[in-house]
Amino acid sequence: MEELHESLEDVLLFTLDDLLGEDFKRFKHKLSFSYLEEKDPIPWSKLKDAHTLDVLRLLLEAYGEQENYVELLLKRRSDLPKRGHEMMAVERRHREMKTNPKDGPEVDLENLFHPHPEGENSKTVLLLGPSGVGKTTAAWKFMLDWASDKLWLTKFDYAFYISCNALRCGPKLMSATEMILNGCPPGMVSMEDVLANQESLLLIVDGFEDLKLCDDPAHTLNKDPHRKQEVVNLLMGLLRKKIFPKCHLLVTTRPMGVRPLLKCLRSPLLVDVLGFDPLHRKEYFHRFFPNTGQANQIFELVQRNETLFRMCFLPATCWVVGSVFQQNPQAELLQDIPETATLTEIHLRLLLTFLGTNSKPSHLEDLCALAKDGILQGTLVFREEELKERGLDCYLASDPPSASQEVLRQDVRVETLFKFIHLGFQELFAALFYLLDTKTTRTPYQDLFGDQKECKSKYLMLIHFLYGLSNVERMSVLQESWSFKLSETKVSPELLRWVDQEAKAHSFKREEDLLELCHCVYEMKDGVFARKAMKNVHDLDLRTQLLTKLDLDALLFCLSAVEALNSIRLSGCEFGPRRFRQLLTGFLKSSEIQLFLCLPISSLPVSVCLPNFHRLNRCGLSPTSCKDLAPITMANARLTGLDLGENPLEDSGVFYLCEWLLQPTCPLQTLRLPSCNLTAAVCRPLSQVLESSSSLLELHLGANPLGDGGAKQLCQGLDHPSSRLLHSCGLTAGACEGLASVLETSETLVELNLGDNSLGDEGVRQLCQGLRQRHCKLQRLIPQVGGWAKTSADVQPVLCLLLFRATGSTEVDRTGRNPALAPRSLLTLVVLLSSGTMPWPFAFSLASAEPIFFFPSGPWSTTKIKSFEP
């Protein structure tokens, strides 16, 4: 540890020695107001007369001899990031990792250039992530560890940091050698040695998206590293390995810049920078606040609100929260954030508390215009000249800057560049621009809503905040704090027009867009607007979305605004009894409900009237849940379908259901109970249901070990309903005698699924006896190959022929019924081929006078088949 301390101190001292005259003064000036490593600035009174060694001591005292770096979560990815809002995409990735921790292998700085698991060793690594997630910090950490002899000492002899922001503000022409030596003191590095040892050269290119490359300049590139040329051409030459072809590259970019970048890079390793996981969020606050008690108190406050805690995956958000409590330990606006607070409300509370509740940003209209233009143009970094042109000189560096000026922060490396301290704040100011009474002559909202594709990605959060700021109460609070005049142009009609445009483009059939619509409507909390907006939604299908508490709040509000729905489909929701009761009124407006992998619903009100088809797959329902469910279903005359598959109901749970099913008023037509841990014990009461029910048409009992004894009991009731499915029920030949009898006598049995049952030759022969009978009404037999593959090659063609003869049909195929034929006149043989095995491949040649069956051993003519009699 001692050796590391000396190495780090040497690096700092070596760097400070290179700052001479005016540069050293500027460096001290910056230390007096910069929150480096999220620590307080060093007071100017201590820095004013400090010499090199004094500054070194102050740096070590202020920032500590140990590292203040909090580990960032890095994960490999194998595909391109989807288009969409970059911060929302990463937050969604954190949710997915919570349910699937193995989602993508983790990497760290130490093994970025290690061989891939496939054995390949990439010399180019691409770090992807939204603004404020820590890409630049990771790049600096890499450089610092290398300079401190902690990382890659034997792999890289030279490492150079290239800031694309700095290139934008630098000379238009430079050579490759000038570009990489830009930050090095003269004479420190021998360029001849670098060129001779390119294998040990690492180039870190930070912020590629800032260059905004549109054209491919490769054809104008000169490969001479000493020749001056346009900076863009030069950088593209480095990325394409036209210059320094054997070097290693570490490139950082926001997702918006990844597609043009991939055209340049050779087989890059893609790594997502995902910010802080929950444990490192806690570590961050403990590093920010030296007092352990204070750190715990603030972390618990942040963790108390699920939405704010999820936002803290972003280090920039953690820094804002820490700064707020550092300035004002009470911070009332953050102490009492309600659980139902929206994204707009939380961002607004953070901003107001950070600036001071009554501290209006200077030149608010111009600041909002700057933010808006930046979002629409994809710009997060602004030149000093741009601020001056817009009359925002007050945001240029002062000594020290006021609280209201802190919303724009000077770049640490390039002091002529400025950016908003948080992307969310820039988007919030951009949304506010459309609500202010400005003197700008323009077509309202045209630049925002004109291009639908752009709205889905770059502008998504801006539009979200525009809905949120349109809330009457929220805008009243903001006006009271900042005293500005609102535009006379009403925003609601424009927002409603945008919803209609999106609906016509079928956008809300995509689950992400549908969920975002719910959030936007919830942000406004205007019942009249909600009813108009939700008339465009007929199906609420959010099965692939991992819904949070805030998502469910938005869904609850939108369900209250709809009159009727065709269907609601949800998955993985953490309901609980209270939340389910809240949502139930909205659920009952739908004709169909599907809930999959939702947490147990322990009790429901007896008076509930369920829709006509209800799915509760894998919802953790227990036998006791069936006891609660039975009276609810009894009270509902509309319920015709119930799917309780993959719930551990066990036999006792089905006994409760049978009490309801035996009621003469029970309207149920379809009951699905696959994989419910049922045994033969349930077959007797279910058989009684089959015998007595006048409505039940389908009963699914697949993947339950009923056995032959259970099947024989079911056979007593199988001649009444129209469809009985016994897929994968552990049946053998012993069950086939009873089934054959049912086939002979049943006037209504039209479908039978016996897949994945080991019936064997004898069982199939018995079934054939039933199939040959004149009174057999079977239309669909599903013999999945998993269990029937054990039948011999002689029995298989006989069964095919019997099925073919049964109707005299001339058309049968693998896929199911031919829609051109009447259902009663066609017997469909469905053969579901399992992966890798084809014991039953067959086809009918319609061009031939007689059908030909194709089996593994070759074609069988009907003559050969006729010679075999079961």
From TrEMBL:
Q: Where is the NACHT domain?
A: 123-255
Pfam families attached here?
LRR_6, NACHT, NLRC4_HD2, PYRIN, WHD_NOD2
Q: Which UniProt key words apply to this protein? A: Activator, ATP-binding, Cytoplasm, Cytoskeleton, Endoplasmic reticulum, Golgi apparatus, Hydrolase, Inflammasome, Inflammatory response, Isopeptide bond, Mitochondrion, Nucleotide-binding, Phosphoprotein, Repeat, Secreted, Transcription, Transcription regulation, Ubl conjugation
Q: Name one GO cellular component term.
A: microtubule organizing center
Can you state which reaction this protein catalyses? Answer: ATP + H2O = ADP + phosphate + H(+)
The question of whether Hydrolase is a record keyword is answered with yes
- Name the Gene Ontology biological process terms: inflammatory response; innate immune response
Which GO molecular-function terms appear in the entry? ATP binding
Outline the extent of the Pyrin domain.
1-66
- List the Gene3D superfamilies: P-loop containing nucleotide triphosphate hydrolases, Ribonuclease Inhibitor
The cross-references to SUPFAM superfamilies, in alphabetical order and at most eight, read: DEATH domain, P-loop containing nucleoside triphosphate hydrolases, RNI-like
Q: Cross-referenced InterPro entries, in alphabetical order?
A: DAPIN, DEATH-like_dom_sf, Leu-rich_rpt, LRR_dom_sf, NACHT_NTPase, NLRP_HD2, NLRP_innate_immun_reg, NOD1/2_WH
- Chief site of localization: cytoplasm
Give TM segment ranges: none
- Compartments where found: Cytoplasm, Cytoskeleton, Microtubule organizing center; Endoplasmic reticulum; Golgi apparatus membrane; Inflammasome
Query: What does the function comment of this entry state?
Result: Independently of inflammasome activation, regulates the differentiation of T helper 2 (Th2) cells and has a role in Th2 cell-dependent asthma and tumor growth. During Th2 differentiation, required for optimal IRF4 binding to IL4 promoter and for IRF4-dependent IL4 transcription. Binds to the consensus DNA sequence 5'-GRRGGNRGAG-3'. May also participate in the transcription of IL5, IL13, GATA3, CCR3, CCR4 and MAF.
Q: Which family does it belong to?
A: Belongs to the NLRP family.
Name of the protein: NACHT, LRR and PYD domains-containing protein 3
Instruction: Please give the organism.
Output: Pseudonaja textilis (Eastern brown snake)
